[in-house]
Amino acid sequence: MSSKQISNGKVIDKSRVAKAFSSAAGQYDQLAEAQKRIAGRLLSHCPQADSVLDIGCGTGYWTRKLRDHCQASQVYGLDLAPGMLSYAQQQPGSQGIDWLCADAEALPLEPASLDLIFSSLAIQWCNDYHRLFSGIYNSLKSGGQAFICTLLPGTLDELKQSWATVDDAEHVNNFVGLESLAEAIQSQGLEISQSESYTETLYYPDLRGVIDSIKGIGAHHVQGENHLTGRKAIIKLKQAYEGFRVEQGLPVSYQVLELQLKRPE
Fold first, then answer.
1. The domain containing residue 77 runs over which residues?
2. CATH code of the domain in which 185 resides
3. Mean pLDDT across the chain, nearest whole number?
4. SS3 146
5. What is the 8-class DSSP label of residue 195?
6. Cβ(220)–Cβ(152) under 8 Å?
7. DSSP letter for each residue of 204-232
8. Lowest mean pLDDT: which of 32-36, 67-71, 259-263?
9. Which of 52, 135, 171, 250 is an S-S bond match for 107, by CB 3.0 to 4.6 Å?
């Protein structure tokens, strides 16, 4: 089963995803507050490892952190977006990292060459999870581990509910559930050592802050058609979102899944 079957039949257009993230490269690290919290928590679970890969490395911020945290001597940063990789290569401390422009569903690594794979908020852009986890299995050494976090259904629910009062179009991506992910993982021979889900919520003063936090990091590509919206629709959206306001501001919630996988010895 692929996410093509479990995402209401809609396939993610990888070229559009790459373009969206490439255009966001210069401002990504300043705007990706939720992503930093989530990736930092994931990294804290990673052990020392010699050969590591960061899938969906983006600006390389976490690739460099991963290298230092794991004390790795061989480091790969892989991303679909050439603009992100170009930016990553120019950042201080990026020397010695092998940057790969490739699809996570077609990992270009030698079989059994990695001790550890790290991936924070990237695999939700995949279409075929069997191919993804097959590649992860093949790239890991015997006993190697993968530390992955992705998004679950319910992510950006405030935005989804608010848009539902405006029109019937799809403005928020549908995310794959744990059951489908677990099936794809185990079918490729990987073991799930640990699985944990939690909610990460950030707050913004207004709707503009909400939209910018999503759009500014390139994560605004939605499967299927994107519908143009007029001023009246935005006013209605703003009114609906105000219904979620709390003392801290307007909430943006991410339903996060952390996975620790292992290739059996």
1. 3-156+173-204+254-262
2. 3.40.50.150
3. 86
4. strand
5. E
6. no
7. ESSHHHHHHHHHTTTTT--SSPPPP--HH
8. 32-36
9. 135
